[in-house]
Design goal:
- The complex is a heterodimer of chains A (622) and B (206).
- By secondary structure, chain A is mostly helical.
- Chain A has a single domain (10-531, 538-553, 602-621), classed as Cytochrome c oxidase-like, subunit I domain (Cytochrome C Oxidase, Chain A, Up-down Bundle).
- Helix content of chain A is 67%, strand content 1%.
- Chain A contains 20 helices and 2 strands.
- In chain A, helix 3 packs parallel to helix 6 (150-178).
- With 206 residues, chain B is mainly α.
- Chain B has one domain (17-205): Up-down Bundle (Four Helix Bundle (Hemerythrin (Met), subunit A)), CATH 1.20.120.
- Chain B is 74% helix and 0% strand.
- Chain B has helices spanning 21-51, 61-64, 67-92, 96-126, 135-164, 175-205.
- The longest helix of chain B is centred in the N-terminal third of the chain and has 31 residues, at 21-51.
- Chain B is elongated and about 65 Å long.
- Chain A binds chain B through residues 103-104, 166, 170-171, 173-174, 177-179, 204-205, 207-209, 211-213, 215-216, 219-220, 223-227, 229, 231-235, 238, 242, 245, 595, 598-599, 601, 603, and chain B through 3-4, 21, 24-25, 28-29, 32-33, 35-37, 39-40, 43-44, 47, 50-51, 54-56, 131-139, 142, 146, 157, 160-161, 164, 173, 177.
């Protein structure tokens, strides 16, 4: 049954990835799919910036601009940042805790395919009558009035991909609680694992409100519901609440893993233990907790009243405290460290001032009275791009460079990596720093053009130039990936030489069973401890024996495909008679596949001891 | 303990649902799932409370809801939760036949509840209370209907487990499956207690 060390044809490789339940391969799937959507969202950003480069531009029409800006936001948050975060989690977390796989390998695959089909469904809208055009927040009064099917694609696509995210969240919670190696206590878990843990809890409690909001929107648009229609007693503000009860924790769902990635990188390349580990853990948990109490700061101008605004303003500002704790801990980790400026480390160092700017403008926005000035202006656009790009995208780029050898067995070229970094870093600040001032000068967001003579020309042109720097950085990164894949040399278990956590103790890429013997963890930075005692490998916690592995399965793909078909059918429910029937067929496909999963026993298979010994010998030689 | 082990009443563990790593994972994962479901229903309840008086000229809750029907439905579902506890009791005692029997009773009670709910919705529609009548009607049908969909899914799930395992009895592979299905059933029951209170009782008292 084992597929170890067997050469395979292209068809077999594709089939392998369609049916895989291995967390490392699922990580690669997330990376590829998320990467493609990232490029797509980036192209949409370029279109926006070209349109805004000069006043009264007619590069694209106003209506199309709305579609592009909506899809840019939606794609970047749901289809690029989230899956890329999941790529990192899948690639690293099970190995960091000394496990052979996640708790639910089947569900892991299901989560990916749901995200994938949801994303494809959303982007089908470009070809089927027009993309959603009510902004990524899709406020109900706008979206109910949208004449095309775009919003329906948004609602159904996000519903499907959101389901995948929820499944992924539950999976990581259980994995981290139940699958840790002996000795891996909670307070010995690497920071990235901690961040994944808290993030997963946020996913679990933040996604259901979005699900409910999307159900209401679907009912209103496709099945005659009246949740948001004031004419029949509905209330459009309900959408805003549900969306932001999800939407604000979503910010932390993205940024906590980013903090986790940087914590790993700072410690590794300062060659020092992370400063204030326990306060880092506490700050992470506290940010996750407070993240649920601040959603109405997105709604200060709705008119909830001064008391509600005041409470949410104070709660929001409170988050700056644990975040500040983290910033100082990172600085103190570098203090007195033996710092190596590798590509990941450069992103990490650049992240601190960039993210602090985003944090400071965040506190400015949190001041409810002042927010009446900032709201819906480019100041807000600048703020959240500083947080999301300066925080999350920097972390994803850093993490990709850092863990690339662990995922693919080859190092990305460091010179090209630094070129990418400088282009991206300069381009990022060029694009968004000036937008603070555009916003304060009164330029509204989400408007497709501006008039000459209002003082917006220079700022917008600078911003557009910056966007092209980031595009160039992306091209260099892609070239780096291609060159590395073609020419790169195979590397050993610990290619940076300074790895501290368990993932650097196994070969690159890790064997499908991760650890021939589950390790015994003897403290924080488990691998570093072994290295400092002069040992080459980890201390095993069990004798070498047969390893139990889960079977691959095609059913996750089918379950997701069924929902995709169902969504397509129900989307055309009101236009064509076949709509409803296609929808029902799709649901039956999904339920049928779930039924098969339930009735067919799946006991997995074993890799035998001899095969493992052979594979380990080869791995050691590489 | 190993998952494919043949067991007797003597060797069957006290907590078969958590005797294997797979079982432990399933147990914990399902509790987390129920946590997510709780937030889902909380959102539905919050919306219902916000919209329950927005009748837009259509029927109000006082005009629609009838105590006898809802009371009988509530009793059926509460009883089914009890019978599923009996089923789990027998599972832990490795008495497969009795477990199947009580699960069967659970399914029958659940099906009766579902039939009453369908009858109830049908009555309302005939009284001019359709899904698109008002914001109240949309919120009502979505909240109570989501619960009904959960009941339907639970029934299909328990039936599938009963039929699939009818011939081979209990083992450590299917014990966690029965256990989480019964957890799901309890959860449905708890949600209904809130629906009975928030939707029906509050709806009749006004």
């Amino acid at each position: 049954m084992s597929t170890l060390a067997r050469k395979k044809g292209v068809g077999a490789v594709i089939w392998d990835y369609l049916t895989t339940v291995d967390h490392k391969k699922i990580a690669i799937l997330y990376l590829i799919a998320g990467g493609i959507f990232f490029l797509l969202g980036g192209l949409e950003a370029l279109v926006i910036r070209i349109q805004l480069a000069v006043p009264n531009n007619d590069f694209i029409s106003a209506g199309f601009y709305n579609e592009v800006l909506t899809m840019h936001g939606t794609t970047m948050i749901f289809l690029a940042a989230m899956p890329l975060v999941f790529a990192m989690m899948n690639a690293v977390v099970p190995i960091q805790i000394g496990a052979r796989d996640v708790a639910f390998p089947f569900l892991n695959a299901l989560g990916f395919w749901l995200f994938f089909f949801g994303g494809v469904f959303l982007n089908l809208s470009w070809f089927l009558g027009g993309a959603p055009d009510a902004g990524w927040t899709s406020y109900a009064s706008l979206s109910l009035a949208s004449p095309t099917h775009g919003i329906d694609f948004y609602v159904l696509g996000l519903q499907i991909s959101g389901l995948g995210t929820l499944i992924g969240g539950i999976n990581f919670l259980v994995t981290i609680i139940n699958m840790r190696a002996p000795g891996m206590t909670y307070m010995r878990m690497p920071m990235f694992t901690w961040a994944t843990f808290v993030t997963s809890a946020l996913i679990l409690f933040a996604f259901p409100p979005l699900t409910v909001g999307l159900i209401f929107m679907m009912m209103d648009r496709l099945f005659g519901g009246n949740f948001f229609d004031p004419a029949l007693g509905g209330n459009t503000i309900i959408w805003e609440h549900l969306f932001w009860i999800f939407g604000h924790p979503e910010v932390y769902i993205l940024v906590l893993p980013a903090f986790g990635i940087f914590s790993e990188i700072f410690a590794t390349f300062s060659r020092k233990r992370l400063f204030g580990y326990s306060s880092m853990v506490f700050a992470t948990v506290l940010i996750g907790f407070l993240g649920f109490m601040v959603w109405a700061h997105h709604m200060f101008t709705v008119g909830l009243g001064p008391i509600a605004n005041a409470i949410f303003a104070v709660a929001t500002m409170a988050i700056a405290v644990p975040t500040g704790v983290k910033i100082f801990n990172w600085l103190f980790t570098m203090w007195g460290g033996n710092i190596r400026f590798t590509t990941p480390m450069m992103y990490a160092v650049a992240f601190i001032p960039s993210f602090v700017i985003g944090g400071v403008t965040g506190v400015m926005n949190a001041t409810a009275a002042a927010d009446y000035q900032y709201h819906d202006s480019y100041f807000v656009v600048a703020h959240f791009h500083y947080v999301i790009v300066g925080g999350v995208v920097f972390a994803l780029l850093a993490g990709a460079h850092y863990w690339w050898p662990k995922m693919f067995g080859k190092m990305l070229d460091e010179k090209l990596g630094k070129v990418t970094f400088w282009l991206f870093f300069i381009g990022f600040h060029l694009t968004f720093f000036i937008q603070h001032f555009l916003g304060l000068m009164g330029m509204p967001r989400r408007v497709f053009t501006f008039l000459p003579g209002q003082g917006f020309e220079t700022g917008n042109l600078i911003s557009t130039v910056g966007a092209f720097f980031m595009a160039a950085a992306t091209v260099v990164l892609l070239a780096n990936v291609v060159i590395t894949t073609v020419k790169g040399k195979r590397v050993g278990a610990d290619p940076w030489g300074d790895g501290r956590t368990l993932e650097w103790a196994v070969s690159s890429p890790a064997p499908e069973y991760n650890f021939a013997q589950i390790p015994l963890v003897r403290g924080l930075d488990a691998y570093w401890i072994e290295k400092m005692e002069g040992k080459k490998g980890l201390t095993p916690a069990e004798p070498l024996g047969d390893i139990h592995m889960p079977n691959p399965s095609f059913l996750p793909f089918v379950i997701s495909l069924g929902l995709f078909i169902a969504a397509l059918g129900f989307l055309y429910n009101q236009d064509y008679a076949w709509g409803k029937w296609v929808g029902i067929v799709g649901l039956l496909v999904t339920l049928g596949a779930m039924f098969l999963r339930s009735v067919i026993d799946d006991h997995g298979f074993h890799i035998h001891k001899e095969e493992i010994m052979e594979a380990e010998k080869k791995g050691a030689g590489a | 303990m190993h998952i494919e082990e043949k067991l007797t009443p003597e060797t069957f563990p006290a907590e078969p649902e958590k005797a294997t790593l797979e079982g432990k994972n399933k147990f914990l994962g399902f509790w987390f799932f129920l946590g997510g479901e709780t937030v889902l229903f909380a959102s539905l309840f919050a919306t219902y409370l916000a919209l329950k008086d927005s009748v837009a000229g259509g029927p109000t809750s006082e005009e629609l809801f009838k105590m006898p029907l809802v009371f009988v439905a509530t009793m059926l579902l509460l009883t089914s939760s009890l019978t599923s506890v009996y089923a789990m009791y027998h599972m832990k005692n490795f008495d497969f036949k009795k477990m199947q029997l009580w699960l069967g009773v659970t399914v029958l009670l659940g099906a009766a509840f579902l039939a009453l709910e369908i009858y109830e919705f049908n009555e309302y529609v005939h009284e001019g209370f359709k899904f698109s009548t008002s914001a109240f009607s949309s919120a009502f049908y979505t909240l109570v209907g989501t619960h009904g969909a959960h009941v339907t899914f639970g029934l299909l799930w328990i039936l599938t487990l009963m039929i699939r395992n009818a011939k081979r009895g209990l083992n450590l592979y299917n014990a966690p499956k029965f256990y989480v299905a019964s957890l799901y059933w309890h959860f449905i029951d708890v949600v209904w207690v809130f629906i009975f209170t928030v939707v029906y009782l509050m709806g009749m008292v006004g």
